[in-house]
Amino acid sequence: MQQRLSAAVAVHGRLDLTFSASNGKHAADSPRFLVNGALVSGQIQDRRLPFPLFDVRGRFELSNERIWLDQGFARNGTTTVTMQLEQRGWQADAPLTVAGAARQLELDRRFLEVLPPDLQDDWQKYYPAGTIDAEFRLEFDGRRWTPELTVTCLDVSFAYHGFPYRLERTRGTLHLKDDRLQIDLTAAAAGQEVALRGEAQDPGGIPTGWLEFNCPQPIPLDEKLLAALIDPKARDVVRLLRPTGMFSAQGRFERTDPQHPELHRQVRIELFNCGIHYKPFPYPLNMIRGQLLWDDRGWTFQNLTGRHDSAYVEGSGFWRSQAGSELVLNLVGTDVPLEDGLRDALQPGARALWNQLRPRGTVDHLTVGIHYASSSHFLGIDVTAQKWRKRLNDEGRNITIQPTWFPYRLDEVAGTVNYSNGRVQLRNISAVHDQTQIDISGACGVGQDGSWTVQLPNVVADRILLNRELLAALPKEMGKAVERMSFEGELSLRGALAFSGSPTHDEPPTAAWDVILDVEDANLQCGFPLEHLHGEVRLTGTSAGGTFSSRGELNVDSVMVKNVQLTGVAGPMWIDPSGILLGTEADSAAPGRVPQPLTARTIGGQLSADIRVGFEPELPYRLQLRLERGDLAEFAQEMDLKSQNIRGRANALLTLSGNRHGWPSWRGTGAIRLFEADIYEIPVMLALLKLLSIRQPDTTAFTSSEIDFRVQGEHVYLDRINFNGDAVSLKGSGEMDLERRINLKFYSLVGPGELNLPIIRAVVRQASKQLLLIHVTGTLDQPQLTRDPLPLLKETLEQIFPEAVGSEVLSGLPPLGLPPIMPARR
After folding, report:
1. In Å, what is the CA distance from 217 to each residue of 49, 286, 322, 556?
2. Is residue 119 left, alpha or beta, with left meaning phi > 0 and alpha meaning psi from -120 to 50?
3. Model pTM score
4. Please, which residues bridge with residue 538 across strands?
5. Which tens digits make up the pLDDT trace of 759-796?
6. Is residue 8 within 8 Å of residue 44, measured between CB atoms?
7. Residue 473 parent element (H or E)
8. What CA–CA distance (Å, rounded) separates 154 from 105?
9. SS3 state at 317
10. Phi first, then psi: what are they for 122, rounded to 5°?
């Protein structure tokens, strides 16, 4: 007895005792005793108790057979304790029964200080506080204790160490019997009721069993909840989401095998009017609803819906913590506005591309995939935006872009744009600008240094108008050149474009192209007008550092030049800020091939040309033309000559320079050679033959015809005209203007005109019988002729036929033997 009371610090009170003792019936028997007593108005100070007890009272009995306590009572403040005890025997293993109850017992830190170490560990797992009622019964059979305990929570708060979110105002019971703990509690979280139900077997060891909770009413997603996430990885991930709003939750925790102490969980969280502002992708979403599932694998997000301004967003994903945490979040948005908030949420590379494209409008369908791995600190963001082609009632929802590197506004943009790890893919993009329809596919990228590239391998543009907006978007020097050409007509483009630039914007971007331009019924000014142009040209080139150059290949079906039609125009071309080169000079730098001239079919013959056009304001040009086997009948038709029976072929050379001001600037020289020609239906020729009293022959009367001329403004000076024939020859000179007015002077010679020197000398001796001077004035269609006989003067003959009497002999060139035009130096 003394040993059992040795722990008591102090016991005070009034004790009433009765005592009796006697010897046994036999000398060997132990003495017998009986003590009955009652304690009233007592006080107990005991270090094993959390607080002193007052008003202690009770009855007890001590005898050889037992220790018995009944009606034990004590209090401390509002806390009252009752207890009964019976020990059957005085041995250390004597059976013992203790029963008692505590009412209005306050759970505070004083309990923790008096608990044994193992119970202190259990206490700190929950750290309870508040008021309870407790009833207990302890049975000791000499070998082990059998406890039974019922705790009625009146107003208790606690927080489980694995998720230290403190629940308040807990009510209900905990009942322990036969080593099984039954839980039936109702608590409050942020003012909302939380029901807790469960069972645990062997709660003092490695327990098995289950615990269910249900919080059907929403509670806030606040800092208190976030602080309860003790796993630093989970807490970091959730804090990155920066969640707000309300949620309800229900779930079940279970352990079925004590040999495998892992705790299985199945938790369902319902979100109400929540918001997230994910730090790595700061695009806030509000009004979020949906479910979060927490199981053995981790967290799963499903059926998430929310809004961002007018955008409606759906989401799903998961978070796994095995072998490092991994977050996957997939968002799908509709009617997403392309505003600065979305731009600022993107990674620096995507943000830079956004600033280059400058989009505005609303995306019909947007998907965002976010992947974060804490082990590698890898953050992957995949964004796919889709815009469907314009539908009815889409006003105000269209997308426009105006790239900084090509400031040409594109409206009604449709197609798919995908961004992933700094790379943007453009798929089936279509757009319009006024009447121009554009389709592109390609890719964009941003380097680590901020430099950017745009690759567009598939570009198709129809009904392009070279308006002010497009000219301003072209590289500066190119825009000036194209503007001076005064292009009118429909233009289409197909091919590849590429752009690149630096992050500083100090220099204009670099551009490259490989395109085919198709032209339909276009007019343009190349110093000389080109009209009704049909065909295409392939251009490859670059633009950088404020300048550009481009190599091209013409393939024109038809074009009108001064009312003359050219078909099958083909050949090389070169363009740079100084001008356009066509023909051999444009082809001179092409490696591995012989320079080729520009070729075409016109007036029944083959035309070859070399042309240079400067981009100065006057568009000066210089051209060299060579015509082989031109058809005189077609020429007569093109020139509207009043004759139906002109036949023959012609070779011609022309070197001409001028500018956009037209004929006042024309300067040039040329030569024409006629062969196999029947030109007697030309009014001038009819008049000449009639004047000479020569009938139109059945075959060609002139074996060769040669004309050398000069061009000065509106005047064509015919420096040498030779019509040589067996019956009659005509030699002369003169001029003609653009109104087809003529002033010609011919000298006729009866007989062959192609005479060697002795014959000519004979002709001189007989000149008075053979020569006439013929003046032709009027117009080509209505010529007027006069004739005069020549004086018999040798000097006159030398003036008329210098080739016959001088040191240089002018002989007719063969029909296809015209000297080639030498290319000009670039």
Report:
1. 40, 20, 32, 78
2. alpha
3. 0.69
4. 516, 553
5. 444 444 444 344 678 888 988 778 888 877 654 444 45
6. yes
7. helix 468-473
8. 9
9. strand
10. -65, -40
Cβ atoms within 10 Å of 25's Cβ, excluding its own: 8
* Residue 114: φ, ψ to 5°: -100, -5
In this structure, what DSSP letter does residue 821 have?
P
Q: Quick count: other Cβ atoms within 10 Å of Cβ 257?
A: 9
If phi > 0 it is left, if psi is from -120 to 50 it is alpha, else beta; for residue 619 that is left
C-alpha dihedral sign at 389, 390, 396, 401: positive
CB of 158 within 8 A of CB of 151? no
Name 816's Cβ contacts closer than 8 Å, sequence gap at least 6. Answer: 628, 629, 651
Amino acid letter, 764: V
CA 741 to CA 735: how far, in whole Å? 8
Q: Assign 196 to helix, strand or coil.
A: strand
Q: How does DSSP assign 39-59, residue by residue?
A: EEEEEEEETTSSS-EEEEEEE
Residues composing the chain: 826
**Do residues 133 and 152 touch, judged by C-beta distance below 8 A?**
yes
Higher pLDDT, 648 or 733: 733
CA–CA gap between residue 149 and residue 134 (Å, rounded) = 7
CA distance 702 to 697: 10
CA dist 532 → 435, 481, 529, 560, 822 (Å):
21, 20, 10, 6, 30
For residue 91, the tally of other CB atoms under 10 A from its CB is: 9
Q: Tell me what the mean pLDDT of segment 504-516 comes to.
A: 84
Look at residues 800, 805, 798, 793 and name the one whose alpha carbon lies nearest to residue 758.
805
Indicate the residue type of 88: R
| DSSP letter string, 614-656 | E-STT--EEEEEEEEEEEHHHHHHHTT-S-S--EEEEEEEEEE
- φ/ψ region of 364 (left if φ > 0, alpha if ψ in -120 to 50, else beta) reads alpha
